[in-house]
Write a structure and sequence with these properties.
Layout (H helix, E strand, L loop, with lengths): L1 H14 L19 H14 L9 H15 L2 H11 L7 H14 L14 H19 L6 H14 L5 H18 L15 H10 L1
Helix pairs in contact: 1-2, 2-4, 3-4, 4-6, 5-6, 5-7, 6-7, 6-8, 7-8, 7-9
Length: 208
């Protein structure tokens, strides 16, 4: 079965990585694939990516993984999403930030959907973990796109407006990292860039 193959491949990647070329894997795309097989694929890819970088069509794959995570609440799906996010490039920023904004602010799981699906807490938590990978990439831009920083800060701050402590605990380290990397940046109008977000930071600290 597919699930068994992924489990065997995972063992190869973990214990005999030099033989990984003999256990190639692809993420299952068939609509009939079981959740367990998809989750086994997620776990196998996460293990493989500890040793080598893989590239994916993120815009095609991520919606499938979000649906899987929404349906199963299984951390194998979220770990795979975070593994993919850890390899993001500047070219991916717009997509990842729009995804985080949609899930954390708009409260919608998918971009292309006839009805709004409220993201599960596990999906929101995953996006907060993804956000920590966005911060250094955003900081590396030769010319900062402040609209990206606006959306990122607004999304993370919104995540603290909840009684779920786990989301608050995931949000504050992201905000701390933003402050560390951007505290010496100057706004286009002059003055400290982060001064523009004082009210949001203050409200977040009050809420948290």
């Amino acid at each position: 079965s597919k699930e068994l193959y992924y489990e065997c491949a995972r063992a190869v990647y973990t214990f005999t990585h030099t033989l990984s070329k003999f256990a190639p894997i692809n993420y299952p795309t068939s609509p009939s694939v079981s959740h367990q097989a998809a989750l086994a694929a997620c776990a196998a890819f996460s293990d493989l990516m500890k040793f080598e970088q893989k590239t994916f069509d993120v815009q095609e794959l991520l919606p499938k993984l979000l649906i899987l995570l929404q349906s199963t609440k299984d951390n194998r799906a979220s770990t795979f999403i975070e593994s993919i996010a850890s390899t993001m490039s500047v070219d991916d920023l717009s997509f990842w930030i729009s995804t985080i904004r949609r899930i954390l602010i708009s409260g919608s799981l998918l971009a292309q959907s006839t009805s709004t699906i409220e993201p599960a807490p596990e999906v929101k938590l995953c996006m907060l973990h993804v956000a920590k990978f966005i911060v250094p990439v955003l900081n590396s831009l030769p010319i900062l796109k402040t609209e990206f920083l606006d959306d990122l800060i607004s999304s993370v701050c919104r995540a603290t407006e909840t009684e779920r402590v786990v989301l608050q605990e995931a949000a504050f380290p992201v905000l701390q990292r933003i402050i560390e990397l951007f505290r010496n940046r100057t706004a286009d109008e002059g003055g400290r860039l982060l001064d523009l977000y004082d009210s949001q930071f203050a409200q977040t600290v009050k809420t948290g």
